[in-house]
From TrEMBL:
Keywords: Repeat, Transferase
UniProt-listed Gene3D superfamilies: 2.40.30.20
The protein's name: Lumazine-binding domain-containing protein
Protein's GO biological process: riboflavin biosynthetic process
Transmembrane region(s): none
SUPFAM superfamilies linked to this entry: Riboflavin synthase domain-like
Alphabetized InterPro entries for the sequence: ATP_synth_asu-like_sf, Lumazine-bd, Lumazine-bd_dom, Riboflavin_synthase-like_b-brl
NCBIfam families named in the record: PRK09289.1, ribE
Lumazine-binding repeats: 1-101, 102-210
Keyword Repeat belongs to the record: yes
Entries under Pfam families matching the protein: Lum_binding
Phylogenetic classification of the source organism: Eukaryota, Fungi, Dikarya, Basidiomycota, Pucciniomycotina
Entry superkingdom: Eukaryota
Length: 244
């Protein structure tokens, strides 16, 4: 579990095919700030993806992680090259202060940067996201982009003829303050580039439960189903379509 508060920016120093499984191994340098208490098998989020440390040297400031095909298919890590900067965050300590929000390090998908607009000394970014990942998002809710905890400032689903309309995709926006711009990779990316997206786990959990009940997967006559039925009945009664 992570918080979405990036600790430092690492740099990809080597990319090698792995013999243990079909995938790649990254060596990440400039990482001394996250290696002081590192142990074999520890989790470090790299651009929001929870990866396992397979080797490291705290004095030289590097560590290595492996990337399997599932990771490569879900995230943008496969597009990184030697020299790419990456957000780094250690797994959350149970005794520390909890900032940001609950970030699992399990990326849902990627989103495309559509526009970058200055707003004072901050910048606003607009993204395009497949609708299947759009429903857990709520105004002023949380989202993790490349592992950075951010607040949603815009949500919309364009109609045909609207700017940025793409079938099956919705829009969301965030704002980056000066501090976030200087400490994360998101602000370094141009229009057209992609970011890793992890939707808020609380929103995903609520959506899953409600969808399961409404689609018939929940226990018939359960509390949630009864609550939904009563809500629908009240709406119909207010419209005069049925008696209370």
């Amino acid at each position: 579990m992570f918080t979405g508060l990036v600790e430092t920016l690492g740099v990809i120093t080597a990319i090698s095919p792995t013999t243990e499984f079909e995938g790649f191994s990254f060596r990440i340098g400039n990482a001394g700030d996250v290696l002081g208490d590192c142990k074999l098998g520890d989790s470090i989020a790299v651009n929001g993806v929870c990866l396992t440390v397979t080797s490291w040297d705290a004095q030289e400031g590097w560590f290595e992680v492996g990337l399997a095909n599932e990771t490569l298919s879900r995230s943008n890590l496969g597009k990184l090259v030697v020299g790419s900067k990456v957000n780094l965050e250690r797994a959350m300590a149970g005794h520390g202060r909890f900032g940001g929000h609950f970030v699992q390090g399990h990326v849902d998908t990627t989103a495309k940067i559509l526009s970058i607009t200055p707003d004072g000394d901050s910048i606003r970014l607009l993204f395009s996201l497949p609708l299947e990942f759009y429903t857990p998002l709520i105004p002023k809710g949380y989202i993790a982009l490349d592992g950075t905890s951010l607040t949603l400032t815009h949500l919309s689903v364009p109609k045909p003829g609207d700017e940025h309309y793409e079938p099956g995709r919705g829009l969301f926006g965030v704002m980056l303050v000066v501090h976030t711009q200087s400490r994360t990779v998101v602000a370094m990316k141009p229009v057209g580039d992609s970011v890793n997206v992890e939707c808020d786990v609380v929103g995903k959990g609520v959506e899953s439960v409600v969808r399961n009940v409404l689609e018939g997967g929940g226990e018939q006559g359960g509390a949630l189903e009864l609550m939904v039925e009563r809500a629908v009945e009240r709406v119909l009664a207010r419209k005069g379509l049925m008696k209370e």
